[in-house]
Write a structure and sequence with these properties.
Serine Threonine Protein Phosphatase 5, Tetratricopeptide repeat; single chain; alpha/beta; two-stranded antiparallel ribbon; flat; 5-stranded mixed β-sheet
Length: 349
Amino acid sequence: MRTNSLLKNLFLVVAFAATSCKSTELVHINVLKPAPVTIPAYVKNPGVVNRTTVVAQHKAVDVVDKIFSLEGAQLDKEGAQSSVTALAGELLRNNRFSNVKALGELDLTTNAPGLFSAPLSWETVEKICRENHVDALFSLELFDTDSKVSYAALPVSLNTPLGKVPGIEHQASMLTTVKTGWRIYDPASRNILDEFPVARDITFSGRGINPTVAAGALINRKEAVKEVSVQAGQNYAMRIIPYRTRVTRDYYVKGTDNFRTARRRAQTGNWDGAAELWKKETTNPSRTVAGRACYNMAIICEINGELDLAIEWSKKAYEDYNNRLALNYIRLLKNRQAGNELLREQQAN
């Protein structure tokens, strides 16, 4: 028993030491990242098309699918049109383009209900662009809703004039999955710039004294589906826009009194003041301390947007002092540099 007690106390001491001796803390940095999709500078007047109408020979399959998945006759059609209209409107608000045309009158079809069709031929794309005076096509090529309904009958107590009596409450729930898929065609380069499927689930539920009343709450799902369709179009427009995100970085807070003071300055947002102290420690006789200081100088350079200088400090931390964090940090910084090159290209368009 005494041996077990000693081992337990030793484990607690070691665990506490490991926790209290952590030498780094995290800093969050807001960075601007390039858009997932780069549109060439010469694309100024795109068109938006709807290619989700099912070709005649597949309509029987599509009708069967709608029956078994409880889709309304016009649900997919109206949802698809909502997505296309929303995308065109969002692209026009973007200021990236001179004009955006919603080409809703075109008779484009799909031969794969619920799936991505093969891409349009380049001859078709070029013909559409030429006749409608547009220089690229944003195409909705997949729109499908799939619904599953489940019922449950649960025992409950019902309030009546005679008091509470046992009864049955019917509960109905419906899970509707809205699937959209988009392509961007660039006829000048004959490249498909993007191919992007996305799905979103919507849940509806209702309850009542019989199945009919319970299902009544599911009737108005069309408006919810159309709302999700609008959001799908708006969200897809965001794929051509650079976006901000937060990244985390480790920085050293222990090593000398200067590191501890710098930590307090950083915690109050005084990063330049912290950097003054880290700079002093870059010539510390201790290789560990100097390496940590060089690494922290790289962090402050990244915070200030000076990526070239951040890479120089990181290389010094790794090459001269074998700092364990610096090598991976160099890779992160070089990736950010490459992203910034693409970002400059996108912002120049």
